[in-house]
Amino acid sequence: MDITTATITAAAIVGFLSPVIVQVSKRWIAKGWTEIYSVAVSALLAVIAIGATGGFAHATWGAVLLAVIGVAQTIYATVNTAISGKLSSSYDNSHVIDTTAAD
After folding, report:
1. Rounded-to-integer distance, Cα 77 and Cα 82, Å
2. What are the helix (H) ranges across 1-103?
3. Band of the pLDDT at 88, cuts 50, 70, 90?
4. pTM of the model
5. What angle do CA 91, 27, 64 make, to 5 degrees?
6. What distance separates the 2 farthest-apart alpha carbons in the chain?
C-alpha cells in the first residue's frame, strides 16, 4: 500500500509550517520546554495532516509522521543556526546543548 500524493503534500506543508507556528507561539512556553513543545506541535500537525488525507489507511503512515517531525526539527535547527541562535536566545536565554565543544 502506498501513501497518497495528498498525504505527502499535506505532510510537506506541515513540515515547513510547524517551525513557523513554534516560533510565533514560543514566547508563551515556559523556559526549558521549548524543545518538547516543538516536537509536540510537529507531531500533532502531522497526525492532523495524515488523518485529514486518509493516510492512516496505509501501512506506512508512521514513516510520514517521522518525516514531518524530522523535517520540521531540521528546518528549525538550520534557521536557528543561520541567524546565530537569536531565536533561542530571545526567549530561553541561550540554553542550547553544545555537541561540538571539546572535553
Report:
1. 8
2. 5-25, 34-52, 61-82, 86-92
3. low
4. 0.71
5. 100
6. 49
